[in-house]
Amino acid sequence: MDLSGKERHVPAVVKKTAVLGGVPVVNSYVFVAGDRDTIITGLPNFALTPRWRFQTRLAPRLARLPAMQDPSGRANVEALLDARPDVVLVSGAAAEDSAEQLAQLGLTPFRMSRFSAAMHDRDAMDRRIIGGIARLYGREEQGAAYGRAFEEAETRLRDGLSGLKAAERPRVLYFEYDLMRQQHYVPDWWIARAGGASVTERNRHTELMTLSVEQIIAWNPEIIIVNSRRDIGDVLEDKRLKDVSAVRANRIYAIPWGVCGWGYHTVEHPLTFLWAAKLFHPDRFRSLDLTREVKRFYSELFAYSLSDGEAAEILAGAPEH
Question: In this structure, which topology does domain 165-316 adopt according to CATH?
């Protein structure tokens, strides 16, 4: 049964996996609880930039594989029929809309439920996805290991934020400065979990939010988190934002970027929690060694040994868009 509740017949041993839609995100779940060596689809064009470099560091063969989707994420049916994967992991609207067509052609789509969830669903979402992937590949122990990592991060947040008053939560904005938008509910979730108050949570009615300079000024965030290191300088140089609290205090940061960016959908959310909590409340998390935590996560869950330099590279964020 896939994550949409649809019954699927998958071989007992998956030898060939195709990934469609949000390919880097789905790959990240396979890296933890599936088998990366079974992936037969490469990265789509948008993920062939330096910010996605850890995809091919963890799975070098991805660089040599063809993408099997168009720029919208819709399946290249002919290529998939030629490749005959045992399972096709699909996420995102365009890819999931292709799922039943693929099934009618004799392929086995496994829907990832579009990854879209309001905040009240997010706590269980990552573990639900990992659980589904782990069952698919017969790697339940890896799924359980991820569950333990998630619970450990939650416990550290509870202990570190105990007694935190509402007035002590900084106003936080996470957004894509170059496009003036925020794509998902996800940042509202992890900002709140880490002891912040997401300014975009207020009166939110749609997942995709287009922002204006006037709205940012009205929100007056105390911390701004952007998608790349280049964006930090761009925000600081934007004279329209010069009176915003975060700009005046130079509290603008790039979201870390490992196998995925930590701000939206990623298997790395336990690390997002810890990074954000230390950023928002350094006095409460003084003893938290983020370099050590990132290296441990990658070793235990990705079976990849990070150097100190690579951990620092991840924590510094993507160099540019």
Answer: Rossmann fold (3.40.50)
